[in-house]
Fold Large ribosomal subunit protein uL3.
Amino acid sequence: MILGKKIGMTQVFEDKKLVPVTVIEVASNFVVQIKKEEKEGYNAIALGFEDKREKLVNKPEMGVFKKAGITPKRFVKEFHVASVEGYELGQELTAQTLLEGVEFVDIQGVSKGKGTAGVMKRHNFGGNRATHGVSRNHRLGGSNAGGAASNSNVPKGKRMAGRLGNENVTVQNLKVVNFDSENGVLLVKGAVPGAKNGYLVIKKAIKK
């Protein structure tokens, strides 16, 4: 597992075929915090990525970074681990050691927020007919309530119009096309969640 940042998309040639790839910056991660089962009730480590100005950090957060002996980090993420042995506060984890030999990865990020959307865009509804008596009802979702008067409430989980995007999304089994350890750049086949400069969590694929 390692934290990174989406730079953008481009294309590369692989086996004489043009392949779309996402460029991800995977600079060094630092161990910000260690939680042990004896004290917190579970084992976990928190990793930090990309420096942040001290002016933008509050006092409790600053105390955590000072205890670890590192500069404040902009993106911090906690991971549950089976054991915290081998980890130390302030330890630098390089992408080369974490991604060496990995062929497929799972990438988690926050998808682009698209505001309020209707049922056709949000849930892929087919919509109503365009002719034959359908009047001003072409993109609506139909009835929301139950069929009987005694059950005329809106069922829980009903697919309706609402906010689309801006949620945690994980894309699995993305192929690692290339990894440049000198420049800290990872190329993965296909698209990953989020906009440019969005932060990502990269893990070894669990299904491969």
Observations:
- Residues 114-164 form one domain.
- The mean pLDDT is 89.
- Helices lie at 37-40, 59-68, 95-99, 119-123.
